[in-house]
Structure formats: C-alpha cells, structure tokens
Amino acid sequence: MIKLNFDKKDGLIPAIVQDYKTGDVLMLAYMNADAWNATLSTGNATYYSRSRQKLWVKGETSGYLQRVKEIRIDCDDDTVLLKIEQIGEAACHTGHRSCFHKKVENGSVTVVGKALFDPREVYKT
Amino acid sequence: MIKLNFDKKDGLIPAIVQDYKTGDVLMLAYMNADAWNATLSTGNATYYSRSRQKLWVKGETSGYLQRVKEIRIDCDDDTVLLKIEQIGEAACHTGHRSCFHKKVENGSVTVVGKALFDPREVYKT
Questions:
Q1: What's the rounded Cα separation, in Å, for the pair A64 and A24?
Q2: For the segment B104-121, what is each residue's pLDDT rounded down to a tens digit?
Q3: Contacts of A92 (CB under 8 A, 6+ apart)
Q4: Which one-letter DSSP state was computed for residue A50?
C-alpha cells in the first residue's frame, strides 16, 4: 500500500484533478486515507466531502464519474495529482467543464465558457 | 480587489501551479490573503510557507521565479490555479521540473524523469 502523509491538515490532502487527454485542470478535492484507498482499489476518483463530512465517490449523484488513468504524488507525499477521464460533460457542479472557469484579469473576474448541463436537472434541487 | 474565501482552512487556500505552455502541473502551494495580494500586485507567484510560517516569494532563494501568465479561481472561490512561466529549469526543490515526479502504479512508486539541478548547489545546504 502506498503511504501518504495525512498529518498536516486534519487528515486531509488535496487532490488535483486533471483531464488526462487535454491537460486541463478540472477541479481540486480532498482525500482522507479511506478516499485514497478507495480510489486505488476501484479506479473511480473518490474524495472526502468537507461539507458533508463523508466519503464521496465523484459522480455518485450526477453519474459523471472520474475514471483514473494515472496517479502522481508529489515530492513530500502530501498532494495527489489524478489524471482522469471525465465521464459525461462536466466536472463542476455548476455544469462547467472545469471548476476553474473564473478568470482573474485587471482586477475583475470573468466567466470563461458556458455551462454544459443544468445543475437543477442533474442534482434535482 | 478580488476576494477569495480564506475561511475554510486556517486562512490558507491551495494554489495549483501549471506550466502555461505545456499544461504540466508543477506543484501545489498555499496562499494566505497577503500572498494572494502580493501575487496580484507583483506578477511573481507568492505563497505562504507552512513550514517557515512566512510569506514566500517562489524562487527568492533559487532564483527560479514563477512569472504569472494567467490566474483562474474555482467555482467557490477557495482554490487558485496559476498558469506560470517557470524561470530556470525546475519548480521542485528536489531539482525535478515538477513536484509530481512520483508515479503510482500497481502498488508501487517510480520516479519519472531526472533532477535538472543539484539542490545542494542551489540551496547551499
């Protein structure tokens, strides 16, 4: 089993999620040891939801799973980089392909691109 | 001034650092509000060092500054993505181009690529 350093921040480490084909950074989420082990054993990106305080299989509600293609860890074993195949259109709960769709320029923020799905339909909120 | 949400984790938010040309993810660091404002005002990536507990201009010791080319923030304003030009050869203190040079595969870790500089020479340790 690959050991990571979960000691620095409440047992959680950040996981950067990158499209394995385009290299676009799609989102950042957090993992505890259970999420890390579940990701390794299932091949589906699994995180720890800080707001819901429980394990979170990405796409369990939306169906937009993330299939893990490659895993990297950083020099001091406290950050994960997942290169994934995003099932469905978007990684962001807003319907955008990437969570990083807000561009900062000259002191203001502009949204780049359009939402690819309607969150109200996907999440039935 | 662009406001980020620094409330979730001890006043720190993660900043993903990506090569603006190749799309390679080079490292992850943390920012407090001062680091964020310094990054915006100087154009040099500036972080908060958790180990040294102070503001950290990336490259201040090694000379390997990171010139900011584009800034994105995520959907809930608690993560930054910096697209940067890495001055010098490497972003990682080990001498590797990327901190994410450890690949996880079949239950073991292999180092991808070679160190581009000798850390003992650059950091005089």
A1: 17
A2: 999 999 999 899 988 888
A3: A26, A27, A98, A99, A101, B75
A4: T
B chain contacts of residue A94, beta-carbon cutoff 8 Å: 75
pLDDT per position as a tens digit, B20-51: 999 999 999 999 999 999 999 999 999 999 99
| This model's pTM is above 0.90 | yes
Q: Which of B28, B71, B105 lies at the smallest CB-CB distance from A79?
A: B28
Amino acid at A105: E
Query: Taking CB atoms and an 8 Å cutoff, what residues of chain A touch B9?
Result: 9
DSSP classification of residue B45: -
Contact: B74, A102; criterion CB under 8 Å: yes
Q: Do A99 and B79 touch (CB under 8 A)?
A: yes
- By Cβ distance, the residue of B18, B75, B94 closest to A99 is B75
3-state secondary structure of B92: coil
pLDDT > 80? residue B125: no
Distance CA A19, CA A77 (A): 21
Residues of B in contact with A99 (CB under 8 A): 74-76, 79
